[in-house]
Design a protein that fits this description.
The protein is mainly α. The protein has 8 helices and no strands. α4 packs across α5. The radius of gyration is 19 Å and the shape is elongated. Keywords: DNA-binding, Repressor, Transcription, Transcription regulation.
């Protein structure tokens, strides 16, 4: 889609859009930042234990997939575009790394507090969580909810076994 078509669709003058976004790449970068900032809000520590923080994060992401599915459709499209656009790939990878580090830090803190076993691989679990959460937007809502609930059961089981 060309910039003038985007401007027409959103009901603004093409030159106004062009003033703020001189290229389509600049517009896509802004969309990437906007979407990832909105989703990053779900990765803010909420207080409570690391398992509680993780539970809140997962449920908030699940809620967003149900209430704002367009965010995840756009992220999927951005992922495809990132494969051929180095600038968008760099932005997307940076935001994804921030998310991964939130997960790793939360998991490591839970391990340190004895809530998960010491041999839990925080990096591998973070990647597994990311893979699941990225894919739930394409699952039927009931399937997405079941997948998140199963992930919670696994993590809470690890937590309970670690506390024995």
């Amino acid at each position: 889609m060309r910039l003038w078509e985007v401007a027409e669709r959103v009901g603004i003058n093409h030159s106004t859009l062009h003033h703020y976004f001189p290229t389509k790449e600049a517009l896509v970068q802004a969309v990437v930042l906007s979407i990832t900032q909105r989703l990053a809000e779900t990765a803010t520590p909420t207080g409570g234990t690391p398992p509680e923080q993780l539970r809140v994060h997962l449920h908030e992401l699940l809620r967003r997939t149900q209430e704002e599915p367009e965010l995840f459709v756009a992220l999927h499209e951005i992922g495809l575009r990132a494969q051929r656009d180095p600038g968008i790939r760099a932005t997307a990878e940076l935001r994804e790394e921030e998310w991964r580090m939130f997960l790793v830090n939360t998991l490591q803190e839970g391990i340190k507090q004895g809530m998960w076993p010491e041999d839990l691989d925080a990096h591998a679990v973070a990647f597994a969580i990311m893979a699941l959460m990225k894919s739930i937007s394409v699952l039927p809502p009931a399937g997405a909810e079941q997948a998140v609930q199963q992930l919670e059961r696994w993590l809470m089981k690890e937590e309970k076994e670690s506390n024995r």
